[in-house]
Amino acid sequence: xxxxxxxxxxxxxxxxxxxxxxxxFQIGAPQIGEILAQLGVAFTFDVIALMRKDSLHLTxxxxxxxxxxIAAQPHRHVLVTHGTDTMVETARVLADLPGKVIVLTGALNxxxxxxxxxxxxxxxAVGAIQALPDGVYIAMNGRVWDPRRVRKNREANRFEAVD
Length: 163
Known about the structure:
This protein has helices at 32-39, 60-71, 87-93, 118-131; strands spanning 4-11, 16-18, 25-27, 44-53, 77-81, 101-105, 135-140, 143-145, 150-153, 158-161. The protein is an alpha/beta fold. It has a single domain (4-17, 24-161), classed as L-asparaginase, N-terminal domain (Rossmann fold, 3-Layer(aba) Sandwich), CATH 3.40.50. A six-stranded mixed sheet has the order 4-1-5-6-7-8, with helices on both faces. The chain has a two-stranded antiparallel sheet with strand order 2-3.
């Protein structure tokens, strides 16, 4: 049963803030804490705002920091908000962390946008994290994916299975 959820926020589209019609943006503060509070979830959570990066700009050192941060957490359930472009790569780096259920999620549109998939993806991730055994997963597009068997199809702007 989920008693406490640790959230590691790394940035990505879910937290983007656009300033003008030329699509100038920056990564803002994590939106997930506000979303979960508004939904009145029945568990405690904390948000570690680890970085504010577009996932295309994440380095191996960033992924190592994400891994070390998760490994240091006392709680079993960890949700990672992450940009979608390199979410799979980060999930693979986290694959062998013992004693944790780790679910990565994000959004194809910023959480601040009307009609964003952010709240849906967060809800899917929270549900998944409670039902899954230890391991690393991706929750996007209404499905829970094995990071070894999924990719982002940038042209279709969705995640899909790979053989």
